[in-house]
Known about the structure:
The complex is a heterodimer. Chain A is an all-alpha fold.
Amino acid sequence: MKFLSNVQTTHKVFAALVLAVLYALPIFITSPVMLQIFILIFLYAYLTSSWNFVGGFAGVLPLGHSAFVGLGAYTSTLLYLTYNISPWIGMIAGGIVAAAFGLLIGLPTLKLRGAYFALATIAFAEGLRVLVENVEKLGPFEVRGPKGLLINLVGNSFKDFQFLSKVPYYYIILTMLVLVLILTFFMMRSKVGYYLAAGGEEPEAAEALGIKVSKYKLIAMAISCFLTALGGTFYAQLVLYFYPKSIMGLDMSYEIAFIALIGGRSTIMGPVLGAFLLRPVGELTRIYLGDTLPGLHLIIFGLVLIIVMRYQPRGLVEPVSRWLNILFDRIEKRRRA
Amino acid sequence: MALLEVKGVTKQFGGLTAVNSVDMEVQEGQIVGIIGPNGAGKTTLFSCIAGSHVPTKGSIKFNGTEIAGKKPYDICKLGVTRTFQVVKPFANKTVLYNTTVGAFAKTNRLDVAEEKAMEVLKLIDLYDKKDILAKNLTLPERKRLELARALATEPKLLLLDEVMAGLRPSEVAEMLPVIRKINSVGVSIIIVEHIMQAIMNLSEKVYVINFGKKIAEGDPHKVVADEEVIKAYLGDEYVANSH
């Protein structure tokens, strides 16, 4: 394919190799705990890649994306519990609901710059969480307020998006992640990608070049919220029980932003790298110190963020890709020699 | 019909009248200069034409269409593109990327946009820098990138806001043929500039603005001999000596 022609062969081989290893991994790892850790790494990489559409490429800093995770989870689960609609369909419905909400809050807030946009998104996410906590019944839907939703077990069923083993979840989220990365790749090489980057960096110059900056930011917001909500449905089906604080709390929003900033915003691999570095830390502190020091992982992330911002303000993906490139060049030379 | 027709344009900021009932005209294919002392209102007039400011009063017609009060991106789509006095490159992107952003104004396809961008970069002698990040360019190169980006939108009228300010005389001399080349491919140009050598050299017609008002217009060589103009630039006492 033509668009891949400027990507080096070694890069392609490397990417294919990594993918092959990841897809083969469940053959070697059978422990459900280990698989769960990988599933959550992929989920957070997926959520952060979705966040990246608006937080990275559109150049603003949303800090309330857990709201869209929650909207996705609640929409698909309520549709499933009330009308027995398959979560796969509910997933799309949740995406549409989240995109609509994203447009609604994006319309007045995307014109805000810097910290003001971040604050507005925090306020929206928290407002929505408190709202859901106070709603017992919404029309035909039993929202159950702070008690949350429980999805009844039906055993292995693709239609019901439920599996007894972790392996199907592993493959589903890995595939979702790969797809969102491919989408990111194409977006970056499209008019939308160029216009978002331009509008995010120099809005005044961008407008003079014919770019309706607010329109492109709204497009990015809608895409981002839609994709984030799909992750929400996945999460709901993975845990089968959730309540407002667990699925739309701010700590999840912050973790997404931490992963993006530490890994590298507005890059394809930044969110993946960030998730692989930070998620295990979160998981380990939760396992060993969860009772005594809950939330310790966020403090650690904060410290890491300060150090990264000080020495690698564009994220760790920059030095890592530089090393990889050096490595690839050596391999390439040796191959030719 | 003139390509651009500005009639009675006034722009007030609170109590300050930055542009006061200015008329001007640009014919197709012309290079028109706007000169005037610092703070005379040249950039404000520019911003009114390009849509960054909404004029308080007056009409601005481009190709017969009223554009006063329209948004910059819509005005750009109609064929009027401006550059900025303080250059605003997309600093972390390459020269080619910057120019391609401009070229997307007329196409949705990356390969077409990139091709157009390379064509423009060749035209203004920036092609060999195409893979350099904009933040690593020298000032004259950045000014030229500003030009390239605007030109890539395929404007009929290009508004150049002090593209030569801060350049050394030798660099100005290099810029002049570039601007003439752009004009020769059918782009009309309005140029705001302090460097008289450049204005005299390039423009067919000059407008002089002082305190927001037009005080003279016409052939550049005649205009600089005008009493009002000398007064505006040098003060009253120089008028007598010049006769």
